[in-house]
Specification:
two-stranded antiparallel sheet, single chain, Uracil-DNA Glycosylase, subunit E, alpha/beta, 7 strands, 8 helices, binds uracil, binds iron/sulfur cluster
Length: 210
Amino acid sequence: MSAAEWVPESPTLAELRSAVQDCRGCELYRDATQGVMGEGPTPAPLMLLGEQPGDREDREGEPFVGPAGGILHEALADAGIDPEATYTTNVVKHFRHRLSGKRRIHQSPTSKQVGACAPWLAAELDLVRPTGVVLLGGTAGKALYGSSFRVGEARGHLLEWPDAIATASLDPWVLATTHPSAVLRAEDQRQETYDGLVADLKVAAKALTR
Ligand code: URA
Ligand code: SF4
């Protein structure tokens, strides 16, 4: 399984957004409304990397426009990062879910689906050429560092870009943090979880000013 044959050569972002609609690199296109390419300026100093589009993103065709996106944009602003200056995307471009009656319930993508979708991310990295990449949650972390990656151990300090993932003359630092949806799920620890996200993003903000 690989998206490689659907990724155009030296694409613009508009070309990527259009080409991802034809991707058959894994089975996830079947049950999704559309592919959701990243969004933001190219180049951009910071890339924010989530898991996959959610229900709202799947309908609207843009990343982080739902509830988790609301938390993310608030946390970025609180950390002193202009959300508009960042490029936001996901390791998987189609929404994986199951049905519960009429409700679409999020399901994390498998490592095979993440691997299949990686050529799209590689094309985005070539366009965005970020100084730093923020990994939002475990799926993004595993996509870069493998299945043993744990956000709890890795978060809050700068990491080296993984050797396993080649990026042409690009060597961004990486910062891992919790996924903003964890704040929504945290109930009685909501403030604590949010503060942790902002504290990690401040590490990225500081690294960007170096
Ligand atoms: N969660 C993600 O990981 N990405 C989105 O775009 C929305 C929610
Ligand atoms: Fe292609 Fe990725 Fe969608 Fe799978 S999830 S069909 S690899 S764009």
